[in-house]
Amino acid sequence: MQTFSGIAASPGIAMGRLRIIDRSKTAVSEYTITLEAVCHEIGRLAQAIEDTRVELESLKSRLAETNGEDHLFFIETHLMILADKRLVSETSEIIKTSMINAEGALRRTLHRYRETFARIADPYLRERISDVETVVEKVLRSMNGEAVEPLPNQDCQIIIAAHDFSPADMLQINRNNVLAIITEIGGRTSHTAILARALELPAVMGVEGITGFLLDGVSVIVDGLSGTVIVDPDQETFQTLLYRKQHYEYVEYELLKTAPLPAITLDGHSINLRGNVEIAEEGTSVLEHGGSGVGLYRTEMLFMNRVLMPDEEEQLLAYRTMQQAIAPHPLTIRTLDAGGDKLLEGRDQIAEVNPALGVRAIRLSLSIPDEFKKQLRAILRVSADGPVRIMFPMISGMEELRRAKALLKEAKHELIASGTPFDSKVQVGVMIEIPAAVTLADLLAREVDFFSVGTNDLIQYTLAIDRSNEQLSQMYQPLHPAVLRSLRRVVQAAHGAGIPACLCGEMAGDPLYLPVLLGLGFDELSMSAGAILRVKQILRRCTLERAARIAEGCFDFSTAAEVEMYLKAQITMDVAESID
Ligand code: PEP
Ligand code: MG
User: Under the phi-then-psi rule, with left for phi > 0, alpha for psi from -120 to 50, and beta for the rest, what region is 250?
Assistant: First the structure.
């Protein structure tokens, strides 16, 4: 028996036989060439890139026929990387100056890209190196005369292990027969991990060297809850994991039965529990998990990893797919929340020293009004089909809000002029995730239809703790008194102006915080689909009156640790009372 550790990329436990999919590194040898051979090698490189492009285009059409147009932007991303002239020019330069073969030069180019990407602070962007790696592997295969293969047959139940498993590969899997995915590269925010979660497929990623150790057909257990892969388990381990799997599935199954139950407290107070989504599949999942609509659609996914922004029609298609998936419930579409460096590749954008405080979110949108209006028009057009709310991210004050609303008004006029229908009463809200917005909440509340607190960023900016810096994770405290005071102030400002207070940060999905958020008076909590049922379960066991007392009690303490201790004691007390 052997145990490998990796990243718990998608929850669930699966047991089965391993199938190694050779998406691994193509064996490449580097050798020196003569001066006369330089042109030939550059020609081979260009031909391999062209052949790979043709293969990808054909894969794209095949997938479009069988799986529809959704997510084909993953292939688009690979096509764009292939089209990047730097890949050819840098590799050709290495062929010329180092006098080596095309394969060796391409590997060296990849190595340089890896070094560059490793310096990127943003983990999401840093992980995009996996897209570049995938593309380079395809080109290397092409040079070796290997095509971009469809996945081998999946006619019996298997667990797939691969060096890399691209999103395009994910789209080809037979959901009935593939039980889990193991990869050597990639992380929690990779597109493959996102798709695995959307497809509810257990996945462990970043398991270094696993495909080199194992043989096809070996028995494995993939524990996507803890991020471990157990190979050839002994009987005791097998039994333990089987029990854990059954327990996990039993709890999930029992919880799913509660999906239709209303999100209502014991004393009859109801709030909206909604889902946070990034891709179309998640819309259905939100409903299956008992969510009453989408409280946050992170539209960034559509815009990332590409040189050109999606046009209005492409956006409309994506938003409409999501709207149809969750109809008749409301869909809250957040306008683009990305940093300038994420988007403006190829537009000579200067890299920012501190992107978290840079041209992010609404600041970026306001700096490219024509692109912003495209997004607004696409959202408005979907509003003709069902309830849609527009939400602006990272609003720091009235001026930004008014500028965003002015562009929204222009977008509406443009649609009116072209006779395009939309909901003229579409609701407009702001995310409260910058301390300035908390301070100005009373003013902002007069000019919007709802607030949604983004605690992920609000905690980061209030406590000056980088949310992605693991070394500071202990100091990233949702129960910090400064955070709780901010939340209370936001709810009071919203209710003072007669608008709902929503919360869509990760804090919403943690059952421990539910009594506090309920007690503070939040009207809506939005979280990942998988978290909704657990939060609803706690909500249905609370009374609003008790939650309000618990929330009030939190303000008697002056540190997050004290608040947490108090909160846990209150919950333990409630459980003990309910048993008595
Ligand atoms: C937040 O900041 O809490 C939020 C929901 O937005 P994101 O995590 O996308 O920044
Ligand atoms: Mg945010």
Answer: alpha
Over residues 104-113, the mean pLDDT reads 89
Nearest CA owner, ligand 1 atom 1: 454
Residue 144 has what pLDDT? 73
CB 520, CB 489: distance < 8 Å: no
pLDDT digits (tens, 9 = 90+) for 456-512: 899 989 999 887 665 677 788 999 999 999 999 999 999 999 999 999 988 998 899
Q: Is 456 in the pocket of ligand 1 (CB under 6 A)?
A: yes
Q: Is the pLDDT of residue 304 over 90?
A: no
Q: Is the CB of 505 under 6 A from ligand 1?
A: yes
Location of structure tokens 């909206």: 272
Query: Distance, CA 307 to ligand 2 centroid (Å)?
Result: 23
Distance from the alpha carbon of residue 339 to the mean position of ligand 1, in angstroms: 13
- Considering the domain architecture, whether residues 101 and 161 belong to the same structural domain is answered as no
What pLDDT score does 339 carry?
Answer: 67
> What is the residue range of 401's domain?
262-548
Domain boundary among 144, 167, 189: 144
Give the ligand 1 atom nearest the CA of 460: 2
Interval between CA 16 and ligand 1 midpoint (Å): 37
Clarify whether residues 317 and 282 are in a common domain.
yes
- Give Rg (Cα) of the chain: 25
Interatomic CA distance for residues 76 and 79, integer angstroms: 5
Whether 276 and 257 have beta carbons less than 8 Å apart is answered as no
> For residue 10, is it within any domain?
yes
Instruction: Indicate if 284 and 213 belong to the same structural domain.
Output: no
Overall domain count for the chain: 3
Closest among 447, 437, 451, 439 to 500, alpha carbons compared: 451
CB-ligand 1 contact for 457 (6 Å cutoff):
yes
Q: Say yes or no: CB of residue 468 within 6 Å of ligand 1.
A: no
Task: Check whether residue 138 and residue 283 sit in a common domain.
Answer: no
Active-site annotation, residues: 191, 504
Q: Which comes out higher in pLDDT, residue 148 or 76? A: 76
* CATH number assigned to the domain comprising residue 208: 3.50.30.10
Query: In the structure, what pLDDT confidence band is assigned to residue 342 with cuts at 50, 70 and 90?
Result: very low
Rounded Cα distance, 291 and 273, in Å: 6
Write the pLDDT tens digit of every residue in 343-359: 444 333 446 778 788 88
- So what's the pLDDT on residue 188? 60
Residues 387 and 509 reside in one and the same domain? yes
Task: List the alpha helices (DSSP H) in 123-177.
Answer: 123-126, 129-143, 167-172
Gap from CA of 361 to ligand 1 centroid (Å): 11
Indicate whether 342 and 228 sit together in one domain: no
CATH number at residue 105: 1.10.274.10
- pLDDT, tens digit (0-9, with 9 covering 90-100), for 275-296: 999 777 789 999 999 999 999 9
The last residue of one of the domains, among 144, 166, 184, is: 144
For position 149, what pLDDT does the model report? Answer: 53
CB of 433 closer than 6 A to ligand 1?
yes
Does the global pTM surpass 0.70?
no
DSSP helix, strand, coil percent of the chain (3-state; round to 5): 55, 15, 35
Kindly state whether residue 569 falls inside one of the protein's structural domains: no
Specify the higher pLDDT residue, 539 or 167: 539
